[in-house]
Automatic annotation (TrEMBL):
GO MF entry, a single one: protein kinase activity
GO BP field: phosphorelay signal transduction system
Protein name, UniProt field: Chemotaxis protein CheA
SUPFAM superfamilies attached to this UniProt entry: Histidine-containing phosphotransfer domain, HPT domain
PROSITE patterns, sorted: HPT
Record-linked CDD domains: HPT
UniProt xrefs under InterPro entries: Bact_Chemotaxis_CheA, HPT_dom_sf, Sig_transdc_His_kin_Hpt_dom
Biased composition (Low complexity): 133-146
Annotated spans, Disordered: 133-155
C-alpha cells in the first residue's frame, strides 16, 4: 500500500466497507432464494468490485479471497455450478475476513491472509468440509466467525 497515496487507500476502505455491508444483506437474500439471478449478479459484482480495488492497491490476501468467491459465483451464474450450503458458509465467513483485512489496512497493520481451508470451500465442485475453517491466527480471527451460525446474521 505504500506506493499508493493515502487518500486513495482511505477512499478504497470507505467504499469497500459499503460493499461489505451490502454483501452481508445480499448473501442472506441469495441464500433464501438462490434462483434469483439479480441477487446472484449483485453478490458476484460485490466480490468482483472488491477484488478489482484490492488488485489496484496490491492487497494480495483480499484479491485471493475475493477471486475464490467470484469464481464460484461466476460458475453459478453461467449454470456450471449450483451453490451449496458450504458455499454460503464460506461467503459469510469471507465477509468477516474481508472486514479484518479492511481493519488492518485502516490501522496500518499487515493485511492477514484468509485460511487456505476457507478459500478451498469455494471450489464449486467440492463437497462440504468435514470441519469448518477456523482462523489460523488470533489476530486475524474475526469476532463473528467465533459464534458459529451467528456469523450468518446481518450486522
Amino acid at each position: 500500500m505504500s506506493a499508493v497515496p493515502d487518500d486513495i487507500a482511505a477512499d478504497f476502505i470507505v467504499e469497500a466497507q459499503e460493499i461489505l455491508d451490502r454483501l452481508g444483506e445480499q448473501l442472506v437474500s441469495l441464500e433464501q432464494a438462490p434462483e434469483e439471478a439479480d441477487q446472484l449478479n449483485a453478490v458476484f459484482r460485490g466480490f468482483h468490485t472488491l477484488k478489482g480495488g484490492a488488485g489496484f492497491l496490491a492487497i494480495k490476501p483480499m484479491v485471493e479471497l475475493c477471486h475464490a468467491a467470484e469464481e464460484t459465483l461466476g460458475m453459478a451464474r453461467s449454470g456450471q455450478a449450483v451453490l451449496q450450503a458450504h458455499h454460503f458458509d464460506a461467503a459469510q465467513q469471507s465477509l468477516d475476513y474481508l472486514q479484518a483485512m479492511l481493519d488492518a489496512m485502516g490501522s496500518g497493520e499487515a493485511v492477514p491472509h484468509a485460511p487456505a481451508t476457507l478459500i478451498a470451500q469455494f471450489d464449486a465442485k467440492s463437497a462440504p468440509p468435514a470441519v469448518k475453517a477456523a482462523p489460523q491466527a488470533a489476530a486475524a480471527k474475526p469476532v463473528a466467525a467465533a459464534h458459529g451460525d451467528d456469523a450468518h446474521a446481518p450486522a
